[in-house]
Amino acid sequence: QPITTDMATLTQDVQKFAREKKIEIETLKIREEYRREFLGNVSHELKTPLFTVQGYLSTLLDGAMNDKTIRKKYLERAEKGVERLIHIVKDLDMITKLEAGDLNLDFTRFNIVDVVQNVFDLLEMKADEKNIMLMFDMKYTKPIMVWADEEKIQQVLTNLVMNSIKHGKENGTTEISIEDLVNNKIIVRVTDNGEGIQKQYIPRLFERFFRVDKSGARSEGGSGLGLSIVKHIIEAHHQKIYVESKYGYGSEFSFTLEKAE
Ligand code: ADP
Fold it and tell me: Which residue among 12, 75, 84, 173 is buried most deeply as judged by most CB within 10 Å?
C-alpha cells in the first residue's frame, strides 16, 4: 500500500509517541526511586538488631562466656535481637503482600469481643511492665458479631494496643470501646492517655517506616511498619481508620467494621 500520510499527521504521531515514552520513563524512574528508598529503609531497620546480636555474641566469644550470669544475660539479649529481626521480617513480608494487593482476606463471621480479649491476654505482660491498665467496658457481655478477616483484625488490634502501651505513660490506661454506627457498622476505638502526637506528624503516621521519635521508638522494638500495615488491612476491608491525638495527653485510633447478623 502506498504511504499517504501527510507531514502534519506524521509529526503528530511522532510527538504522541515521544509523549508516551516520556511518561513511561517517568513512571519507571518513580518506581526505581521507590524501590531504592524501600531497600534503604529495610537495610537500615535490619542493621540495628543485627549489630546488637553480633555485639553480644562477639563479647561472649571474647571471654564473657566464662561468667555464668553474664553469659545468661547476653544470650537473652542476643535472643531479643533475633526476635526483633523476626518481627521486622514478618512485618516486611506483610507490607509487601499488602502493597502488591496479594493478600487474600479470609472473611468470616466472628465475635469481636473475643478478639479484644485475645489481644489483651497476649499483651497483658507488656502492659504490666509499665503498670498500664487494659480496659474494656463490661457492658459488652453480649457477642458483637462482625464480618471480616479475623486474623488480620486481631493483628490490627494488636498493633494499636501495642503502640498505646509503647507510647503510654507509666500507670496509664489503654481502653478499647465499641460503638454502633449507622449502616450496619461498628467503630472500634483504642484510646490511651500517653504521650500523644504533635499535630504536624499526624498526616504522616501511616507512612511506611515513619516514626516521630527516631531514636526512642527504635529501642522499643517497632519496625515503623505497624500503622501502615493497620491502614492497609482496614482499607482492604473497605473500612475507614481515624486518628485523633493531643500532644501530652493521649491518642485515639479508631476503625470501622461491618456488622454480621
Ligand atoms: P513503630 O514500629 O515505630 O511503632 P508504627 O507505624 O506502629 O511504628 O507507628 C509510627 C509512629 O507513630 C510511632 O513511631 C510513634 O511515633 C507514633 N505512634 C503510634 N501510635 C502511637 C500512640 N498510641 N501514641 C503516641 N504515638 C504513637
Answer: 84
For residue 2, the model assigns a pLDDT of 57
Average pLDDT, the chain: 91
Q: How many CB atoms lie within 10 A of CB 39?
A: 10
Nearest CA residue ID for atom 4, ligand 1: 222
Length of the chain: 261
**Structure confidence at residue 169 (pLDDT):** 94
Alpha-carbon distance values, 251 to 144, 146, 222 (Å): 24, 25, 18
Residue 134 identity (one-letter amino acid): L
Q: Give the position, in ligand 1's atom list, of the atom nearest the Cα of 211.
A: 14
Compute the chain's Rg from CA coordinates: 24
Pocket of ligand 1 (CB under 6 A): 159, 163-164, 167, 192, 194-195, 197, 205, 210-213, 217, 222-228, 251
Are 257 and 235 in contact, with CB atoms under 8 Å apart? no
> How far, in Å, is the centroid of ligand 1 from the Cα of 193?
14
pLDDT digits (tens, 9 = 90+) for 223-249: 789 999 999 999 999 999 999 999 999
Q: Is the ipTM of this complex over 0.95?
A: yes
Which residue has 490506661 as its cell numbers?
173
Ligand 1 site-directed mutation target among 134, 193, 211, most atoms within 8 Å of CB:
211
Q: pLDDT tens across 15-51, in order? A: 999 999 999 999 899 888 888 888 888 888 899 899 9
Going from the C-alpha of 122 to that of each of 58, 113, 161, 185, the distances in angstroms are 33, 14, 10, 26
pLDDT band at 52 (very low <50, low <70, confident <90, very high): very high
Q: Give this prediction's pTM.
A: 0.84
Q: What does each C-alpha distance from 39 to 32, 44, 206 come to in angstroms?
A: 11, 8, 18
